[in-house]
Amino acid sequence: ILLLAMTAGPTLALAQEADRFALPKSEEGLPGEGKLRRYNGYVKTWASRRAAWSKQIKQDQKAVVFLGDSITQGWGDKFRGNFAGMKLANRGIGGDTTRGMLIRLQEDVLSLNHSAIVILMGTHELEVGLEPELIGRNFTKIIAGIKAHSKTTPIILCRVFPSSASKKRPADKIQSVNAIYEATVKGDSQITVVDTWALFATAEG
Prior knowledge:
Elements: H1 2-21, H2 40-54, E1 64-68, H3 70-73, E2 88-92, H4 98-108, E3 116-119, H5 123-127, H6 132-149, E4 155-158, H7 171-185, E5 191-194, H8 196-200
Parallel strand pairs: 1-2, 1-3, 3-4, 4-5
């Protein structure tokens, strides 16, 4: 029995850690609106990246934190060698939504007592048919959460990128999300909006 207990100890601890960082099985009682995504790649990435980040909280204190989905994750932890001289923390999860980011905001971002935060979010809700107004409400809660933590730390807001028509993210819907974002932060000296739409959009959006 003792041998079994000793053998099971590490396994049990790993299982408990996996459960802690697993995507919640139900949206009930969680902050924000909209269904969470459930495809395997996203579910596994959510758990594995968040478990790894939990071990880096001390070393990532005061970093410039990037919060987003696959566009952010794709920069890698070293940000491809860009942003020399800056302490950086990548908190992007491919496929994530504004609700997912709201749920993990405290543990993944605010716990780092960031020196600045860069956010890019909102495209995946459009892909699954959620409306810009819902995205805007989640976004408002994320901004409120960041501001409750610090009313002075700079926030860099990236406009939602244009997308291929094959991705079911219509240009007019993306522009509606961007308009809601900008109306929400208008006149706020803590927030700088970066026009990442214009950088990449074709004439057709």
